Amino acid sequence: MAHDYNFPDSAARTATAAAGEFLPEKMSINMGPSHPSTHGVLRLQMELDGEVVTRADPVVGYLHRGDEKIAENMTYNQFVPYTDRLDYLAPLANNVAYALAVERLAKLEVPPRCQAIRVIIAELARISSHLMGLGAFGIDVGAWTVFLYTFTEREKLYRLFEELTGARFTTSYTRIGGVARDVPDGWLDRVNAFCDQFLPILEETLALLTRNKIFQDRTAGIGVIAKEDAIAYGLTGPNLRASGVPLDLRKDQPYCGYEQYEFDVPVGSKGDCYDRYLCRGEEMRQSVRIVRQAISHFPGGDWYARDARRIFAPPKDKILTSMEELIQNFMLVTEGPQMPAGEVYFEAENPKGALGFYVVSKGGGVPWRLKIRSPSFCNLSILPRVCVGAMVADIVSILGSFDFVMGECDR
Amino acid sequence: MILRATMVSPNTELAFDSKIEGDVVVSRLDAVINWIRTNSMWPMPMGLACCAIELMAVAAARFDIARFGAEVMRFSPRQSDCMIVSGTVTYKMAPQVRRLYDQMPAPKWVIAMGACASTGGMYRSYAVLQGVDRILPVDVYVSGCPPRPEALLDALIKLQEKIRREPAAKRLFRA
Amino acid sequence: MTATADVATALREKFPQVTGRESLDWPACNVPSGQALAVLQFLRDEAAFDLLADLTAIDSGVGTAPRFTVVWHLLSTTRHTYVRVAATCADDAKPAMPSASGLWPGANWHEREAYDMFGIEFTGHPDLRRILMWDGYPYFPLRKDFPLAGLDTALADAEVAAETGAGVKPAPYMGGPFVAAPGGPLDEAEPRARDESWTEQQEKPNDA
What we know:
Chain A is of the alpha+beta class.
């Protein structure tokens, strides 16, 4: 049963109260689902004692679109556009995570070039997502300039994504067994140029907030999450690392060739909003480091698994001229990439946390069950605990520092 | 884009500050009201999903929507003119969208941004309202998933052209 | 991986009814639903699987017995491995499973979601109500007998429903999603219309 927010009849109570007696009441207030600071359609029902929150009950599901049911009615490749729209701030990262999860069903290893492409786009997506998180956090606590700076950088990233995939975001770039197309000529140089000009601008943008007294007052010591709580509630990603747990799946369960790259993982100590902000800022610097290494060691070769005949479509020129490839392509488009029966669970280190895909397959090209383990869903589950005792203005800081996205939370 | 000279007559002798008209500008009331409304259209961003990110990009520095007078993104329906439904409207969210639309004072317009808001998009499922026009009267539909910021600006311009043709003076003191 | 082998043997010793489960990646086991909580607690306390990564359910299809399976994925933040624990619900008509929200507070929302999507009651859950659909929604969407397009029902807010005349209608799927069926021989698995109730020749259902 839902918590009963009753609104006592003040007039009746005042009539029966003794003269001069003060009747304190808790106020029920509703924040969202349409609210500028809720980062999408999150609804927070709060009970306030004055300015302090005594109970918070988040209501999610306002963006539940039925992705998991849709997945049971789509072939594996047809589902890729839906993964874009999960964490729509870093669609390429979701594409990569999904492709890796399904490839585990067939124990398919993609060639090194494809892995390098996937690492580069995942890290660029991480930069894009953290920039957005930073901008939204800034604008929520009152720093408009940060939002404009970060969005300008994101526009540069959009241009790179558009050149590679055809879309600014919602890229649908990976396929099971590879990626949709190879990197265009000169794209890697442009990515390098972006990285070169990005770092000074990042420092400038972070300098607007890091030593800013107002920002520190609003975020330091606010929304503290203890280590045990973070693990107990299933937090992952920068939220978990800011609380002092050094878990990063790129280092601890390396996938897609991450073990070849050298990078650091920022871990916080206090678990407050300020630590989460600092973790994200540092992660952006480390992502640039990874991208530069990946580009400097960029391998040649295939950008898809050439031997996976029942999984990845043959090249277009062969399809239209050769019978076998035509049939193969036909089977792939109608039936989908043929996966063996079995189940896998794969988590990737997405910008928001650990995005997990639990794929249950009964054979064929359509999954029997696809569960999307959403980092934002788990991150938000700690809200009822962390909001209690905070003031209303701090709620905005806490929500901004969590950097969740409702498309992922509700699927 | 040709700006129709609705306020000043083509006869330059009758122009502003001329010997004949002096400091008086003669125009139709409709034109004046519609000019005010189109050039200060304050959107209420019903930012639900991915299209909201493109809406934010339109408000940001590169695709400046402030050029059109619409950078004041009021999240309060009482202070806005145009609701830009950007993102998937689920059945759970639909009553809140309608409620917020009802709270907007007239005159109000609706832009359905993106495929999900126009028709439900690629989400043909049990939880998604197949088009926000099932609960709201929509003025402009923008296609795209998500539409490019230029497309949204084009929609805003189309909406402005639509408003310019409205007989505003007749309904000025009615809802 | 010696660590996982130790865990598996220790688990087998303590809980003799636990059987292995076919898995392509991480070690997995099937446990009887009565022992699920004990096994999870053992894994959390003795084997350092301290993070509940995921809690979900699978519907094996109408008419299969047992129909609903609840699956837990646990992650060890120190040893960086996962383990999968699966338990089937005893009753197919009213599936139930003990709640893990006492062991991990994060299981609270996951179990609400499993209840919302499948109708599985988690006994001992402090606040079992729908989380993704609204409270009055009468169906469990991820069950295999529920169509993707959805079923008719009323909007959550009666006032808005009366004002607009809108309701929750099935999405227009003329013929149904044309997609191959998972598994099975190729001639049966090929894409075909799932819902033959209306086509171009037949009438469209009335939508508002």
